[in-house]
Each structure stands twice: as C-alpha cells, then as structure tokens.
Amino acid sequence: MYKILIIEDDETIAKTLAEHLEKWGYTVRCAENFKNIAEETAEFSPELILLDIMLPFYNGFHWCSKIREFSKVPIVFLSSASDNMNIVMAMNMGGDDFIEKPFDLNVLTAKIQAILRRSYSFQGNVSIMEHKGLILNLGDASVLYKEEKIDLTKNEYRILQCLMEHAGKIVSREDIISRLWEDDSFIDDNTLTVNMTRLRKKLDKAGWKDGIVTKKGIGYMMEE
C-alpha cells in the first residue's frame, strides 16, 4: 500500500489521521523533525503528503516549496485558515488540494484515493471504494460507515461491491447472480433476494439508509 506523510504539529490530529489511514492499509508516518521537513520527506519517500500550514519554525508554504525542489509528490494542505488568500498561496506553492479543518475523515479518505489514482494511474487497482460516506476496503474485505465496521457475509459483500462499482447505473439481477456465482455455491433468484434484504437491513441499522433502489423487473441501483 502507499505511503503517506502527515506533517501536523497537533499530536491529537496527527494520531487520529494516522490511525484512520492505517485502517485502510496505508503506511503512515507522522513528521517529527519540524526543523527539517524536507530531509524527512526525502528519507521516507511518500506517495502523498498531508501538510498543515501553521507549523513550528517554518510554515507549510515554506516546506511545500522546498519539497517541490526535489519531488512531485501530491501535497494536500490541511488548515483551518481557509480564506481565499491561503488557498491561492497553497496552490501557487505547489499544493494539489486544500481541505478545511475540521474535516470528515471519510471525505478525506475519498479525496486521498482520488488524488493517488490521478497521480499514479491506479484506476485498475483501486483498493478503497467510497459512496456517500460508505467505505469498502478491497484489501481486507471490510466495510465501514462513520468509523463503525459493518459485518457482511461473502455474498453480501460481493453484492455491495458490484453496486458500488456501477453507482448511478442499474445492475440487473442476472449480472449480480453471475458475479456471486464465482465458486461452486448455488445462487438463484431467491437466494439473491434474501441476501439483498439482509444487506439492506445491515446498512440501514448502521445508519446508511435508502442507498440501494430496486428497479422492479430489472435489478438494483445505488443512487448517486
């Protein structure tokens, strides 16, 4: 999995970010040497950097420009100082995105995934899928919503993955059954109905409601 460097002097925020990203398989380091961020960046060689503006010794703008002297690694600024001047400055210094504090961890995860995909052409190897706050981790077959894990059976997970891959489009019952029948277990129309009902109940119980729509006589769709 990809390496992320968190350059944030607030230890609580840095720890929360690190723990969240590590859940999704990222290798995370929190910067410690605020006197020489460039050196620590070069040594760790991350695929993405989360960078605060207000830091000890030198601010994030300074370190962004220094990092740009030797690396094109994507840099996402994280700051409560979200006025237009700071946003423009961040972009002019070489930043790739700007996220205002406080931020939603699920939104941040989705943005990180999108930036990594754009930067390294990983379209065919997306390891995390997100839709309306629901996060599916293909690496360990886990599903989370608002930091809470949702336990799904193998078939329920495959149904969810199939619908998320085609979000906004109708997926026929036949296509879903074909997707489920990847081993020797018998999957028929009634089995699909039972699995879909259980999946919806679990998602609803977790607070993710009304996201899967039935298209009568055709199939199902995950609304955009």
UniProtKB/TrEMBL annotation:
Modified residues (4-aspartylphosphate): D52
Pfam family, one: Trans_reg_C
Lineage top rank: taxon: Bacteria
Domain Response regulatory: 3-116
PROSITE patterns, per the entry: OMPR_PHOB, RESPONSE_REGULATORY
Domain OmpR/PhoB-type: 126-224
Keyword vocabulary terms for this entry: DNA-binding, Phosphoprotein, Transcription, Transcription regulation
CDD domains linked to this entry: REC_OmpR_NsrR-like, trans_reg_C
Function description: May play the central regulatory role in sporulation. It may be an element of the effector pathway responsible for the activation of sporulation genes in response to nutritional stress. Spo0A may act in concert with spo0H (a sigma factor) to control the expression of some genes that are critical to the sporulation process.
Protein name, entry field: Stage 0 sporulation protein A homolog
Native species: Sellimonas caecigallum
